[in-house]
Amino acid sequence: MDRAKRKVAAQGKRKSRLMQGAAVTVFLAAASLSAPNLLQVQAQTYAFSQVTIEGNARVDAATILKFAGIARGQSVTAAQVNDAYQGLQSSGLFEEVSITPQGSRLVIRVKEYPMINVVSFEGNSRLKDEDLAGFVESKSRRAYSPALAEQDAATLAEAYRAQGRLAASITPKIIRRSDNRVDLVFEIAEGKTVEIERLSFVGNRAFSDRRLRQVLETKQAGFLRQLIKADTLQPERLEVDKQLLRDFYLSRGYVDVQVLDASAQISRERDGVFVTFTVQEGQQFSFDKAVVVSEVEGLDATEYNAALRLSPGTTYSPAEIDNNITRLETLALKKGLTFVTVEPRITRNEAARTLDVTFALVRGKKVFVERIDIEGNTTTLDEVVRRQFRTVEGDPFNPREIRQSAERIRALGFFADAKVNTEPGSGPDQVVVNVDVEEQPTGSLSFGASYGVSSGVGFNVGLTETNFLGRGQTVGVNIATTSDDANSSITFIEPAFLGRNLRFRFNAYYNQTNDDAATYDTRMIGIQPSIDFPVSEQGRLELRYFIKQSSMSHVYAGEDANEDGDFTDEDDTLPTSPIIQDDADRGALISSGLGATYSYDTRVTGLNPKGGVLLRFGVDYAGLGGDVESLTTTGLAMVESRIWNEEVTVRAILEGGALSMFGDDPSRITDRFFSGGRIRGFEPSGLGPRDPADRSGDALGGNLFAVARFEADFPLGLPEEYGINGGLFADFGSVWGLDNKAGYTTVDDDFYLRSSIGFSLYWKTPIGPLRFNFAKALAKKDYDREQVFDLTVSTQF
């Protein structure tokens, strides 16, 4: 059998050599050359006094001679004649070409490619004709090129591949028409969507497949696969995923991690893809000793050692190294020391799995930034990109600062791609920074829906532009309504106020409530300009001025409430509490004052990839004119961490507030605190002081509140592509304190601790996250209103 195969192969090779020889003979005959004496022919030259061009209709003779590279009267060899033939053939303008020397005359005969009459697509349904037309280079009223048509077919196949249709095939065909015209038709067989059936990992021991899948941009197909676009195979996204995996391991101390491969296999039926990532984790390391040494003459490292923030026992992270390098280099610049750079030198202790880091202060090369060139921005102003640099022309060149500037440019969200690189300048001590950006749409029109057991169905519409007039400014308009509320706001943000690292924000709002469950309506209108700025690496401070007007209306007086909560005119009993009535009788009140909020958020830097800390403290003083003089303070502390190989997220939140009034006027219900969803298991206004004589049961709110919430989110063991996780929670807190009881001693406004426990279901759907809460109130008062079940959904579509 093998001998027969070799015989067939030998015959095929002989046939191939015969065909090649015949082709050479035909070509030499067409060029009027003599085959028996090839060396003599190659040496032969021709001089043509006349060149005749035949067959051209659209391409003029001068263009043909230019592609041929032959001029009249020029002496040429047979090789140059062959080059002329190749030049005409590769021009893509001619279907057939022949060059024949005839004495002193050279005859060039061409047959031009036909003109494209129309480009059409057949068999497509998933992608529209206008979308496909944007991918092809072949256009109507242009010369038809088979090579370009094949290239267009490959481009169309790539577009379908991005949609997950790996089996799609595109065949270009032509229909000949009169006057040397053709219709170009792309026949499309779209095939079925090929989805990623399974994402798996090889070599991972520290983290489960479930945890690693959360890191990837590529997603595994779920039962809502028709609505999810991230579960189709895109090879370029696999490279991004490999880097994401590597960054994930590095930030958790695995210094030797390698992502060896990311392979994709299509099932035999071509209806699914199986993607496998091969990981070599290595060992986890932590920091041990960290010290700063100086290799610059006259520079003492003592102060730099005090600036280090690297504690022994901390898990290794590249972000920790970069953060400390930036801190040291910034300190050097503050002292006027230019061209001082920091080199991290790491010593490994394999037995203890620790790393000693020496930060060496060294004298760098004296290189200056000659200029910063920005290209690709057609809408965004240069200054918006330029202000992301802490370096200007003439400053010392710092590669680390340039990399950080590139990250800030990408973080703007204005560009689909942003590349920052350097090249030598006009001198050896000069460098040019090139910024090449690709803009993307920055405006959005959103339509949304929300649902809550208490608030019912709501709708909102928002219009936002995050790069207004290319200045990097944000302008937004939002309108949201439910069955009981109507809220609207206008927002303007200038991220670089006065050309500095100051963010100016202006907000105007109009809110009104018309709650059928309450015996009064409210209306609030106000404006609030503010400025915030960084005060530390993780801290920001906001300063604001506010002025608002609040009023109460439609207080139900002279009506009685029946068992369903509806009001009738059967008698003159007053269902509304005198406290609420007193608040309403004060009319529309204006509050004017100043406020400040300090926030500290370690999640911004991501130095701890397993969690973070958020601290926020705010104070608002009303009394700069207006009708109200008060001081409102609020605080929030949150700690979040992942445990059990990062499978479970635990969270603790402490929150509280106090309202203090000055003068003789008491607080009003529009300014007091309510539970408002802070304690699950109760209605939004389900706990706190109430007037027992008020048959409507309106909550009065309180001047004080304190809440502690503890949560744990964890997988339920269901297929993760379903996006369903579980959670447990326990809430504790209360709302209390009134400074006006309208003479009613029966109103109990003392502190009473409420508590609840419950279970949550989280469902990540393509239309937004759904959360189902099932809660049981443990500690409560008789007049509190419970809410066992709550469902919330927030979506944009």
Automatic annotation (TrEMBL):
KW NAD (keyword) present: no
Entry's Gene Ontology cellular component terms: cell outer membrane
Gene3D superfamilies, A to Z: membrane protein fhac, membrane protein fhac: a member of the omp85/tpsb transporter family
InterPro entries in the record: Bac_surfAg_D15 (IPR000184), BamA/TamA_POTRA (IPR010827), D15-like (IPR039910), OM_assembly_BamA (IPR023707), POTRA (IPR034746)
Subcellular location as annotated: Cell outer membrane; Membrane
Keywords: Cell outer membrane, Membrane, Repeat, Signal, Transmembrane, Transmembrane beta strand
Pfam families: Omp85, POTRA
Entry's Gene Ontology BP terms: Gram-negative-bacterium-type cell outer membrane assembly; protein insertion into membrane
Domain POTRA per the UniProt entry, residue ranges: 46-113, 367-440
Record family assignment: Belongs to the BamA family.
UniProt xrefs under PANTHER family: OUTER MEMBRANE PROTEIN ASSEMBLY FACTOR BAMA, SORTING AND ASSEMBLY MACHINERY SAMM50 PROTEIN FAMILY MEMBER
Quaternary context: Part of the Bam complex.
Function description: Part of the outer membrane protein assembly complex, which is involved in assembly and insertion of beta-barrel proteins into the outer membrane.
The protein's name in its UniProt record: Outer membrane protein assembly factor BamA
Upper taxonomic lineage: Bacteria, Pseudomonadati, Pseudomonadota, Alphaproteobacteria, Rhodobacterales
